[in-house]
Amino acid sequence: VSFAFGFFGAIIGAALIEAGSRVARPVPERKPVPAAGATAAPCPDAKAKPVRLGVAGAGNRGRSLLETLVGLGGVDVPAVCDIDKDKAEALKRQIAPKVKILAPDDLIKGVDLVVEAACAKFGAELLRKAIAKRKDILLMSVGGLAGKETLLKEADERGVKVYIPSGALAGIDA
User: Fold this and answer.
1) I want to staple 19 with a disulfide (CB 3.0 to 4.6 A). Which of 39, 113, 119, 147 is the partner?
2) Are the C-beta atoms of 74 and 43 separated by less than 8 Å?
3) For the chain, what is the largest distance between any 2 Cα atoms, rounded to a whole number of angstroms?
């Protein structure tokens, strides 16, 4: 199980690094390098705007993801969505009281990166919505793309990055 969460974290980390590079940030002014023995100023990225990540799915994968991301520097999780509102509310109460429970369209609108942690049936629909709003997305339920590969081409044409994790664990579709 710890391998599973480590792998999951690595996939999310790679997507966050890429998404973070696409978030508009002020360019810090250059300062001279301190002399040897002097105290260096904090890294300019320490004050950078966090990547806003929306989690679609309040089941086991969504819960694990939220537990990992809450309180992590450089990441803000403003919202989650799930077809089961009670499950989403329980997740909010137990892990992230400040998170908003939103409809998928509203979640996508307010984030830099969407992470689908729901089910294969929902993955392609969520991808369509992300493409329409030009938002990057990480699809955990890659089986939902079977027969819908043209969505990947459409995403590419519209400049939307689609992150598809590899490996047996992330490929298990509910």
Assistant:
1) 113
2) no
3) 61
- How many CB atoms neighbour CB 159 within 10 A? 10
Contact 137, 127 (CB under 8 A): yes
CA distance linking residue 54 with residue 51, whole number of Å? 10
Separation CA 19–CA 51 (nearest Å):
7
Tokens read off for 92:
């909010």
Closest Cα partner for 124 from 162, 154, 89, 151?
151
